[in-house]
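Tip: read the tokens left to right.
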């Protein structure tokens, strides 16, 4: 179970100064770790050991992204990155009460129509405060339903994807005389290949979960309702490995999408040198010699 001290929420709207401490937007939980204050729970953040669970919590609007979601998601990623005790994140969505579950329907068209389109982006994260957000820690996305348009682009911005058999992934923008503007047009081809991506993008038709699994968009396919549980299992496997090595390896893998081989060799050498100088490398070697499980410190 998640402790109350480790459960926080991303903020929405403006609160009176009496509600938050003077160091807003951060305050201290009873365990001394920084938390994000809130007036609602539109994006929630919880910790369980070395894992953070971030939840899109707007089921009545199909978890569509408005300004509050963008600010909340960016703040949650800040929390993930700043907490030395958290090594990997899980992103999920609340689909309670939905007849046809939707992980995220993309941009909130009502917000756009009311003149608030700019609020759907943040300076550091781009769309949803997340699509272009630079970070060092991996995030596993747990999808149980439709991820379409910007919702699919949020999935593509994650490092690993777990999905249920009732899920689907699509970039439907062309059906509204729009284009996918948050990375989908180049990340989807990188993930599943040019031909399959081109068909999905030009037709706007979603890719069923089984097909997405076969194409490599998702790494684990599970039964409905099991996405987050499976994501937890995957995240737990990741945290069994040394966090510094995980983060460094992730950095090189991501760079392989755009850097040439010479640059990648150099980056690999740089990251290797950093890892070799860490306390955890000594711990890993000693644990191997002593035939015991290593106790990683992340330094």
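Filled-in amino acids:
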């Amino acid at each position: 179970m998640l402790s109350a001290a480790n459960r926080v929420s991303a903020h929405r709207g403006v609160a009176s100064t009496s509600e938050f401490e003077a160091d807003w937007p951060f305050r201290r939980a009873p365990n001394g770790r920084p938390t994000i204050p809130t007036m609602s729970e539109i994006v929630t953040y919880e910790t369980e050991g070395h894992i953070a669970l971030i939840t899109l919590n707007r089921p009545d609007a199909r978890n569509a992204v408005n300004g509050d979601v963008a600010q909340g998601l960016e703040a949650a990623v800040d929390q993930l990155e700043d907490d030395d005790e958290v090594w990997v994140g899980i992103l999920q969505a609340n689909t309670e009460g939905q007849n046809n579950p939707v992980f995220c329907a993309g941009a909130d068209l009502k917000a756009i129509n009311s003149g608030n389109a700019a609020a759907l982006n943040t300076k550091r994260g781009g769309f949803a405060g997340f699509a272009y957000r630079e970070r060092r820690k991996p995030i596993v996305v747990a999808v149980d339903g439709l991820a379409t348009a910007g919702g699919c682009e949020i999935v593509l911005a994650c490092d690993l994807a777990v999905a249920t058999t009732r899920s689907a992934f699509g970039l439907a923008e062309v059906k509204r005389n729009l284009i996918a503007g948050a990375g989908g047009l180049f990340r989807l081809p990188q993930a599943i290949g040019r031909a399959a991506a081109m068909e999905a993008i030009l037709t706007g038709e979603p890719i069923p979960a089984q097909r997405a699994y076969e194409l490599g968009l998702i790494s684990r396919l599970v039964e409905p309702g099991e996405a987050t549980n499976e994501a937890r299992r995957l995240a737990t496997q990741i945290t069994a490995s040394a966090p510094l090595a995980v983060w460094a390896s992730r950095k090189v893998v991501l760079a392989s999408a755009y850097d040439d081989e010479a640059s990648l060799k150099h980056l690999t050498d740089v990251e290797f040198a950093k890892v070799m100088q860490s306390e955890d490398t000594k711990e890993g070697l000693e644990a191997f010699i002593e035939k015991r499980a290593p106790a990683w410190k992340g330094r």
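Residues 243-290 form one domain. The longest helix spans residues 67-82.
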